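Example 5.3 — Knr4/Smi1-like domain-containing protein
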Amino acid sequence: MLEINKKEDIIIPFDQIGDDDWKIRTSQIIEAIADNWDDELTAPVAADEISELENKLGTTLPESLSIFYQTFGLANIGEELQAFEDIGWLKDTDATDPEHGVDFTAEEQAVLPYLITFSDYLGNGNMFCFHSETKEIYYFDHDEAPYIYKMFSTVDDYIKDCLIFGQSDLFGENATQEEADQWTEEIVGEMIGKHKIRKWRYFDGWE
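Solution (predicted structure tokens):
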């Protein structure tokens, strides 16, 4: 089983989904996360299920997300990938109701009609979405502005960073949770910038 005792033990699963050995490295992380939380591994999603979802949405999934589903299903990546019946247009959810305190800017209102949810951030009401046309990844933060924030250019980067963060719970006897958290935050911070981690993870470090 994967065990994190030093920063160098943390696996970078891929640069892009489809890279050589991406399945091997990703599987190692997903299996370790599932074992750590005593979860069952999820079955791959059939291509016809993906086609059915795309027909319902009226647009295609990001290609890399489709590949991930067909390889690992709705795996625990450290965050909760939505069940197919829950994937849908952000504008149609109760979360965007002004009665809930969300006051979108004109810029946010312009992009809102294009966003499709596919992942919950720890089930707290915040969600990750892909843009129906560009396939870029946006973060919907129901707590504080900016409420809609472009986080990643591709879904590959989102899944990769989730899998890195997920390894913080796999610390071994020679490391602590705090150390593992710091190592993963440093690695992802070098990739996407500290300001994005603060927005995404409610992280208040690096004073």
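Remark. The helical segments are 22-36, 47-57, 63-72, 106-111, 155-166, 177-192, 194-201.
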